[in-house]
Each structure stands twice: as C-alpha cells, then as structure tokens.
Design goal:
The complex is a heterodimer of chains A (about 170) and B (about 240). Chain A has two helices and no strands. With about 170 residues, chain A is mostly helical. Classes of the chains: A mainly alpha (about 170), B mainly alpha (about 240).
Amino acid sequence: MVLAAGDVTDFLSVNLTTIIATWLNLLILFLVLKHFLFDRVNKVIESRKNEVANTYKEADEAKENARRLEAEYDSRISGAKEESAQIIQAATKKAQQRSDEIISDAKREAKGIAEQSRVEIEREKKIAVNKIKDDIADIAFSAAQAVIEKDFNSKDNEKLIEQFIDNVGEV
Amino acid sequence: MTDIGNGPKIVFELFDGKIQVTETVVMGWLIIAVVLLLCLWLTKDLKKIPEKKRQVLAEMFVNFVNDMVRQNMGEKLMCYAPYIGALLISAVLGALISLVGLRSMTADINVTATWALMTFILITFHKIKANGIGGYFKGFAKPVAFILPLNLISEVATPASMAFRLFGNVAGGMVITGLLYGCLGALSSALHLSFEMGSWAFNVFQVGIPAVLSIYFDLFSGCIQAYIFSMLTMVNVGAAAEEP
C-alpha cells in the first residue's frame, strides 16, 4: 500500500523516517537542554555554592581570629594584673625602705643633737663652775681682806685662797 | 471513529513519498521549539541570588534531574543529566500534548523503540567500557555457560520491554479515550442529544465525562510512564557502568 500525505499509517507500522527523525529530535533536545538550561543553571548553582562555602570559611576564620584575640587579651590582662601587683609591692618595699632610712637618719641626728647638747651643757657647767670658783675666790679674798685689814703678799694670798677654795669645793 | 486503532497521520512527503513525515515527527519539532523557548525564557538573566520565580523554577527542575541522576547513576555519569532531562521532557510533553487535541508522540512505537534502542546502545557501550570487549561477551556466559540464551534474551528484553511499556500505556490510553468518545457520541445520538453542525457534531455526553479518564490516562499515566522510562534508563546504564 502506498501512502500519501494526509493518510494514516498502521497502528504498529515501522517507519524509518520517524525513527531517524526521533533520534535526531532527541539529540537536538539533549543539546538544547544542555546548552540553554543545564549548563547555565549548573554554573549559577555552582557559583552560589562556592560563594556560600567561601562565606562560611570566612566566618569561621573570623571566629577563629576573634577567639585568638580574646585569648591574647585575656593573657595580657592577667599579665597586667600581675605586673601591677608587682609594681605595688615594689613601691611598698621602696617606701618602707625609705621610711626606715628617714627614721634612722632622724634618730641618728637626734642622737647627735643630744650628744652635742650634753657636751655644751658640760662645757657651760664647767664654765659656770669656774666662774663660781672665781667669784667665791673674789668674795673670799675681799672677805679675808676685810678681816685682816692688811695687804698680804699677793702670791702668798693667792696660795692661801686656793687652798681655802679647794677645801670649800670638797665640802 | 475510524482513527481509534490507527497510527499517526502522514503530514507531508519528500522525494516522491520516499520520506514520509508523520504527525509524530512534527510533534517532536513542536516540543523542541517549545522547550527551546522555555529554556531561553527560564534562563534569562540568571542571578547568584535568585530574584525571579522563573529562575527558582529552572533550578528546581535542574536539581530534580541532577539529584535523580546522581542517586541512580553516580557522580561520574553526571554528564547524562541533560539526556535524562531530554527523555523526561519528551516523554511527558509527548504524552501531554494529547490534552490539547494533538496526537501523543509516545503513542508511536517508532519513538519509544528509538529511545529504548538508545538506552540499549548506552548500556552496551558502558558494559564494554567497564569490562573490555572480551569481558562483555564473556559476561553473557556467567555464572554458568548454559544460561547464555537467557542472558541474551534478557539483554534484548530490557529495551523491548521499555519501548512497549511506554508505547502500550500511552497508546492504550489513547485507544480507550477514543472508544469512550465514540461510546458517548453514540449514546448522545441515541438520546437525540447530538447536534450536528456540518461535518462537526456536538455531543452532550462528550462534555466533562471523558475528562475524568483523561486525567488518568493522559496526565497520570503519561507522567508516571515518562518517569519510569527515565528511571529505567538511569538504573540500567548506571548498573552497566558499575559492573566490575
């Protein structure tokens, strides 16, 4: 049977044209889908996936960095605390030392002043005693002069008076 | 209702009838045109962060096919994803064009047989690639020699069953829907509810009732069989590529 355009074929007829055309159609559809859909969409999905992965990586890195900085600051702060304690301790020690020094200096000075005073007093005392001795000698001399009413040899007198005064001093 | 059990119409001829282009082929071209336009529209200005619904749609479809291929064929056969997508789209659209009154593309044994033959070629190619040509022929006599004829039959039965499953489902649906239309038309005439307008007749019972069956045979069966055909192709080719 020869078929023309508009005729219908048999239900299970094999048509080589249809087979080849179908195969070509499938091939064309494959290429169309590959170039215009899959390649394009896959590229976008891939780039998005990369970006997400990158973002996550960056976030992780930032987190890690922050943790590291925190640890660093922590250690720094604790170091500073230790240092300040050390400084305070050293200052306290230095102040103690200084105060001790000052006190000992003052003590020494006071001691010196006391010693000097004592020496002065001693000297004054000696002067005073000598002066009293002289005064007494004068008094005794004038008293004796008055009693005897006579001018002694000055040398003899003085010897006598000295003796007298010594006797008085011992008394 | 003379076209119930018939093949596709011949649309035009070339070279004095040596090349007869049938409805089936024209439907194939139509599908290619529709898919091409759809792809161009869907992939217009794709963004890293999707802004338009059509990009989400395109990504959904691509991801669906990619995931299927990855699960059934493995990462190294991902290059088949567009082929599986092409099969799926051809089979689904080929069945669904019957909804707009055109003849289903997959109701032609030539189409399903071509696709099944393609699957067979891919299976054989991957088997030879995986086992070497000697290993491929020896594989038929395993595990014992006398099983050879059975293995040969099963090798041929795979594409044959695939071709006839898809063809049978769609063509069967078409025949049953056609019969139902005829039946309802006859019923309408018998009850004087058929109104003829020239060569075209309006039959009351033909409104609504066939839609119920059409939902099953055209929509459901068409999609499921398309999915099964793609799935079988993936599983068989994937298994062939994995054989030691």
